[in-house]
């Protein structure tokens, strides 16, 4: 009798232990427990910690409440300006209502992933290429709203959506590179033209200043010669006075306009004071020496006189026909 009682007590104790182990559940801090009793949802959400359920009658579903980072596979599409691009993104979301995440949707992770891919393709078709490359903040907000609207009924909250990368065809990359190069070249030309305009204004002011002070022009001429000679060149460039060229041009025009009788004896003569007297004396001496070296012309004998001076031919020596 005692043995039967002991066996019954051990059996009951084992049954209680098994029942207690089946009824005892532990919900972690980042989880919430949803109880379904005979298939019906219990409104009371089990908080983190130790909890008991009725075995066989109740079933406990644990829902993770942490923020989930879900990458969206790259989606290929055509933008509004007919450019083929490949865009991938990442979605950050979390469950805020555990009962809706269990009851209203079969797999909320898969549902959010598919909704993110569909919304991303829709955003690509509604946007221009420039918006995808430069205005991503606005596109991220629009994409977040498109995913968050159906996710509210699933008990899921979309925290953030980010477009990670936009892949372009190689031809489009080369075209964009040429466009950027042309734009930089245009700006360089505008800056160069602006510099030329400023330099021309300063040069005009310098020209007016040198016109008032002729000595400044001579000093500038000497500075230019020094600058050229400092480069150790074999050729030295000396500028020719423009005033002298203008004087010679005027003299030539006056000589052509006046009749020959009214022309002066030396129309090409340089006015006194323009060239030093020492230089003129050297030029005259060189011209006289060159004239002395030339031989005087020989006297030519008329052809008729030369023919008369020849002896008359002998009649006997004339050839017969």
From TrEMBL:
The chain crosses the membrane at residues 6-27. It comes from the Bacteria. Keywords: Membrane, Transmembrane, Transmembrane helix. Residues 255-268 have a biased composition (Low complexity). Pfam families: Band_7 (PF01145). Residues 255-321 are annotated as: Disordered. Residues 22-180 form the Band domain. The keyword Transmembrane applies. PANTHER family: AT06885P-RELATED, BAND 7 PROTEIN-RELATED. Belongs to the band 7/mec-2 family. This is Slipin family protein. It comes from Streptomyces cavernicola.
